[in-house]
Amino acid sequence: MSTVATQTVDAEENLIQSFCDVVGDDLKLLAILNGKELSADIIQQLKSIDFPLHLGLLLTGTKSRPVLVTLNKTVRNWPKILPEKTRDLLDMDFAGIYLNHAYRASPQESVWVDEENLAMQQSMFQLRDFYNRYGLEVENWRIRPDDHLVTQLQLIAYVFSGEIKLAELKDIAGFLDEHLLRWIMSFAERAAMNCETDFYASLVLLTAFYLEKIRNLLAKILDEPRPTAEEIEQRMKPKAESIIAPMKYLPGTSESW
Prior knowledge:
The protein is mainly α. It has helices spanning 3-35, 40-48, 64-77, 84-99, 109-113, 122-133, 149-160, 166-178, 180-194, 198-222, 229-235; strands at 136-137, 255-256.
């Protein structure tokens, strides 16, 4: 390989790694915001970084741009100390989406893709197998199961935050196709429709648009078109069960979040 060709390959690899680093950092923050109630410290941090305009991937689509602007305006207009009523509404939205399912917008994948809309079904075990390939396991699946939105965001952030190869990018592209992108927009739209605050209504939509943006960019990087929704559903249809020998559990051999 010539020196020029080598330099071109190195430049492309560096560009891809930079993209992954940016996405990894963005997703870590989105996982935090979707995963815990807003504290005074988090609110001040969001204001200081001009969230979400600081994100490495800017969303410029006709649907995503208004969400970005609304979210930024909301954060900018927050006073240093939030009024009690604002605080209560934010807490109510977080609970309604992520804790008590009052908004009927579950952050668990199984509820959206299972034929009977039940939690902790096949998707949870499919995702558990995927995490195991990277030596990961959820901290407590009874509190936050493997197919939870936050758990999946953490997985992608983890993979993107390390030194990444094209094979892993293909892995994540398939992961998005077969899991998050099958249901994230339906979840976001229903949650946003029921939210009392612009912050959470915009946050869930921003998260969905951001994941779509990642997948579109991966299609360009990999030079592979995205499969259609019909192709994905056909791929994910249950297959005939086969008998698999049970595996022994070795405590402490896998990394935990």
